[in-house]
Design a protein that fits this description.
The chain is an alpha/beta fold. The chain is built from 14 helices and 12 strands. The two termini are 40 Å apart. The structure holds guanosine-5'-triphosphate (GTP), potassium ion (K) and magnesium ion.
Length: 436
């Protein structure tokens, strides 16, 4: 892509700071360097420079690096200037830049957009990069960095290549069925391959939920009878008094949520209204909300007061850790069927409960290193590809089936932003001696 504008921006965080980084990209970079630093730029060498304005007045001294395109982040000539992170230094430098001809302030995401337009990044790379910048937990960081590796593109390209080949074989069968030197019925093999690919895409897609958990957080809901100690447990896990605790049954009426970082995984922990059969009007609404929330949760902590165990109605079918609370009030806990015995009052068993939670979280943190769809957009396109393949596999008209395969491979191509209409012809010509 040819950009006429040279863009610049403060790329580091808020001022004042020890060091501020100003990034410049575009055709004017070399001229800017000569003007500001009064020297010839040496690509990829950090240089200690005196930065001067157009009146030759010293602005600041700092480190400058020149990247000659295409070996740069955006693919264009780039300059990075590290100066003292003062508001005045940065303001002076930015106003000096903006006074130079052909220069303007960059729009949000414009450097990355240029990198994409110049083929330095694919769409999935761009998304992973924005995830990396937004990452708050260790798992999110690991996931984003794995996703920026380009391995998604490799997988989707290989799947598209298979589909393009399958389609080419089918089209060839249609076009040259009466000619002697084209292989006869290749259909069986083609359909077997397509079915196998369908299975792979479907397995890949089913891991999408792990990406949601890594990004949005593991949804954990505390359920149990009134007064079981749910709010007390919430406070212990959150390490602060977020929920009201009293000895009155029905204290919690509404769902209350906190965000925790559990071994690097984001966890959304919800305290809920106690479940019982004959509540008042407000409490009944609270109970319905508890159950709604729990039914879409990834994990339920089912809390029971061991000194006063009661059956709770309507538990959802969700992975559950059964927690026996108030261990301080009972002498014998062995015979009971709990995964974890705790006392929110004495702190007994809390560490063990946290390690059970961590164990549960591990399956998701482990996914952070594998290649799974990581955006809603990917999920939608993969579902689209699957839907087309399903129709192709049922379709008896070969032309229509081939068209469905084209649509499926286009959907896959759109994930990383690469669709090449010439692919099909190339494959046909590569496999058959058309011009005989
Ligand atoms: N002895 C003892 N009391 C506890 C323990 N945990 C909670 N309690 C007490 O049990 C009572 C109920 O605690 P909450 O945390 O409000 O219980 P809850 O399940 O949130 O109750 P609802 O919101 O009304 O459904 C309070 O008086 C707590 O102090 C514990 O481990 N030991
Ligand atoms: K209570
Ligand atoms: Mg409560």
């Amino acid at each position: 892509m040819f950009s006429t504008d040279t863009i610049f921006a403060l790329s580091s965080g808020s001022l004042p700071s020890g060091v501020a980084v100003i990034r410049i990209s575009g055709p004017q970079c070399r001229a800017i360097w000569e003007e500001l630093c009064g020297s010839e730029p040496q690509p990829r060498r950090a240089a200690y420079v005196a930065l001067r304005d157009t009146d030759n007045e010293l602005i600041d001294r700092g480190i400058g690096i020149f990247f000659a395109g295409p070996a740069s982040f955006t693919g264009e000539d780039c300059v990075e200037l590290q100066v003292h992170g003062s508001k005045a230094v940065v303001a002076k430098l930015l106003s000096t830049l903006s006074a130079m001809p052909g220069l303007r302030a960059a729009e949000a995401g414009e450097f990355t957009r240029r990198a994409y337009m110049n083929g330095k990044l694919d769409l999935a790379n761009v998304e992973a990069l924005s995830d990396l910048i937004a990452a708050e937990t260790e798992t999110q960081r690991r996931f984003a960095i794995a996703n920026s590796s380009g391995r998604h593109r490799e997988i989707y390209d290989s799947w598209r290549a298979k589909l393009i080949e399958a389609r080419a074989l089918i089209e060839a069968e249609l076009d040259f069925a009466d000619e002697a030197d084209v292989p006869g019925s290749v259909s069986d093999r083609v359909w077997k391959d397509v079915r196998e690919l369908r299975g792979r895409i479907s397995a890949h897609l089913s891991a999408y939920h792990h990406a949601e958990i890594i990004r949005e957080g593991l949804q954990v809901v505390i359920l149990g009878a009134p007064n079981a100690g749910k709010s007390s447990l919430m406070n212990v896990l959150a390490q602060r008094d977020v929920a009201i605790v009293t000895d009155e049954a029905g204290t919690t009426r509404d769902v209350l949520e906190v965000h925790l970082d559990l071994g690097g995984l984001k966890v959304n922990l919800a305290d809920t209204a106690g479940l019982r059969e004959t509540p008042g009007k407000v409490e009944a609404i609270g109970i319905q909300r508890s159950l709604d929330r729990a039914s879409s949760a990834d994990l339920v902590l089912l809390v029971e007061d061991m000194a006063n165990p009661v059956m709770v109605p309507g538990l959802p079918d969700v992975p559950t850790i059964r927690v026996g609370n108030k261990a301080d009030l009972v002498t014998d806990t062995k015979c009971r069927d709990y995964d974890c015995v705790i006392s929110t009052r004495t702190g007994e068993g809390i560490d063990r409960l946290i390690s059970s939670l961590r164990q549960h979280a591990d399956q998701y943190t482990a996914s952070a290193g594998s290649i799974i769809p990581f955006r809603e957009r990917h999920k939608v396109l993969l579902e689209e590809a699957l839907a087309h393949l399903d129709i192709a596999l049922e379709e008896s008209e070969l032309e229509l089936a081939a068209e469905r395969m084209r649509l499926a491979s286009d959907a896959l191509g759109r994930i990383c932003g690469r669709i090449d209409v010439e692919d099909l012809l190339d494959t046909i010509f590569a496999r058959f001696c058309i011009g005989k």
